[in-house]
Each structure stands twice: as structure tokens, then as C-alpha cells.
Design a protein that fits this description.
methyltransferase activity; Rossmann fold; Methyltransf_25; binds S-adenosylmethionine; seven-stranded mixed beta sheet; methyltransferase; globular; alpha/beta; SAM-dependent_MTases_sf; SAM-dependent methyltransferase
Length: 250
């Protein structure tokens, strides 16, 4: 199963993910009746927007983290109108997905770079998407957080690679091989500046360094986060977003 996330700190941070979610939503073509899979739904910010965008449809919020899904359910506690059309599913995107029926749309923000094997991921997503159904996604792409990775490479000898930051063309080829058509992918720099040192540290710890911190003894983690923050050339997370739109072949 995927690793746990600190959902409370996640939601307290100034997240560029909000912008990425909105622009991924804007690429969907909806008539309001669709069943949408939010793959890597996290604490459910975009799940709520999706439920509002499909008033006669349903949303399946899938994530591997129990804490993120608990925060998602808490977000919807006072929205029984939306909750009724939501299914919450704790599942692992690295394996075939345990969905009972096919969906009309697969939507995903800031998640696919946590999945090492994109060939398998796209095949698994195609298997749960109806013929003609839409896939829209955002994730870290080639060159994403290169400055952070340089610092990590300096700090950790023989650090194993964590993220498969893929290029646009290879992703388009993978999607075609997995049975998608009308594929459009692009790669766009989107640096995020975090001038407040405490916010930069919390952001690194919660959003970026989880896999690296999991490998360290608990009492060394805060020092490691400080060392990464101090060594960055400027207080900037040098994001590069890989975005994609495709339909499953009919
Ligand atoms: C950066 S968060 C993005 C969450 C949300 N989409 C957003 O934009 O705020 C990445 C999410 O991917 C989930 N995730 C990572 N690897 C996963 C896996 N193998 N299976 C399922 N979920 C996974 C994490 O639990 C986390 O909630």
C-alpha cells in the first residue's frame, strides 16, 4: 500500500496544487451525468469541485493514504448533498484498480509522479475507463524540482531515484500504447516561491521529502529538512508540470 501523508499539514500549506486542480478541471468536457474517478484524490479539494461539476453524476475518490481520505471525508461532513454521490476507495494506483464498473472520466492532480511504472499505470487506468471516456491529468514532469534533486544528490550518497518525472513525448507514446487516442501532453515550468523559511521547511517535509524521510531515523528528519532548505539556491520549488488529455479508444 502507498505511504501515509500528513493531511492536516498538507491542507495548511499554500498549495500551487489548487491552481493545478482548477486548470485540470477546466480541460474536462462534462454534461453533468458522468462518473468520475479522482485518482490520488488526497484531501478532496478537487473531489468537491468534481462533485459540483457533475450534479447528476458520481465521483469515486481513490487514494492510498488513510489520513488523506479521512480529511476528505471531514471536508464533506457538512455536505450530505455531495456525500451521497461520493464513493471513497482506499486503493493502490500501482496495481490493477478494484472498481466494480467502468467510469466516464479519470481525473488526477499531482499524483502520477509517485507511481514508478507509468506503462502499468496507464494500462490500469484504461481498464477502468469506458471506451471514449476522458483522461485528464497533471503531475511532475521531466525537469521537475531539479534544484531540490541536486541538493538531495549532494546530501545522500547513492540516493535511489524516487520520482519518474517523464517527458511529454514519452508520455504520449505510453498513453497510445495503453489504448488512448486524441492524446495531448505538455511540459510547463511553474516555479513556486516560498519566502517564509518555516513554510518552506513544512512544504518540503510534507509535500516533497516524504520518501526520503521515511528512510531516515525519526530523530534525523528535522535536521535533514533544514539541510535541504538551507542548500536550495533560492526559496523556490522549481516545479515543471506534465499535463495530459486523452480518450480511451472506442
Ligand atoms: C501531492 S498529493 C495530491 C493530492 C490531490 N490530488 C491534490 O492535488 O491535492 C498525492 C496523493 O497521491 C496519493 N498517492 C501516492 N501514491 C499512491 C499510490 N500508489 N496509490 C494511491 N494513491 C497514491 C497520496 O496518498 C496523496 O494523497
Amino acid at each position: 500500500m502507498a505511504r501515509e501523508w500528513d493531511a492536516t499539514t498538507y491542507d495548511s500549506l499554500p498549495l500551487p496544487h489548487e491552481r493545478w486542480g482548477q486548470r485540470t478541471l477546466a480541460r474536462l468536457e462534462l454534461d453533468g451525468t458522468e462518473t468520475v474517478l479522482d485518482a490520488g484524490a488526497g484531501t478532496g479539494r478537487d473531489t468537491v469541485a468534481l462533485l459540483e461539476a457533475v450534479p447528476d453524476g458520481r465521483v469515486i475518490a481513490l487514494d492510498g493514504s488513510e489520513k488523506m481520505l479521512a480529511a476528505l471525508l471531514a471536508r464533506l461532513a457538512d455536505r450530505p448533498d455531495l456525500r451521497d454521490r461520493l464513493t471513497v476507495l482506499r486503493a493502490d494506483l500501482t496495481t490493477p484498480l478494484p472498481l466494480r464498473e467502468q467510469v466516464d472520466v479519470v481525473f488526477s492532480v499531482a499524483t502520477f509522479h509517485w507511481i514508478p511504472d507509468h506503462d502499468a499505470l496507464f494500462k490500469n487506468l484504461a481498464a477502468v475507463l469506458r471506451p471514449g471516456g476522458q483522461l485528464v491529468f497533471d503531475c511532475g514532469g521531466h525537469g521537475n524540482i531539479a534544484a531540490v534533486e541536486r541538493v538531495l544528490g549532494d546530501l545522500v550518497a547513492d540516493r535511489p531515484p524516487v520520482w519518474p518525472f517523464a517527458a511529454a513525448e514519452e508520455t504520449a507514446d505510453r498513453l497510445a500504447a495503453a489504448g488512448f487516442v486524441g492524446v495531448e501532453t505538455s511540459l510547463d515550468p511553474d516555479p513556486t516561491r516560498l519566502d517564509d523559511p518555516a513554510t518552506l521547511r513544512r512544504f518540503l517535509e510534507t509535500i516533497i521529502l516524504g520518501m526520503d524521510l521515511d528512510r531516515l531515523p525519526v530523530d534525523e528528519r528535522a535536521g535533514f529538512v533544514n539541510a535541504v532548505a538551507e542548500r536550495l539556491p533560492e526559496p523556490v520549488i522549481d516545479y515543471v508540470r506534465l499535463t495530459g488529455t486523452a480518450r480511451r479508444a472506442g
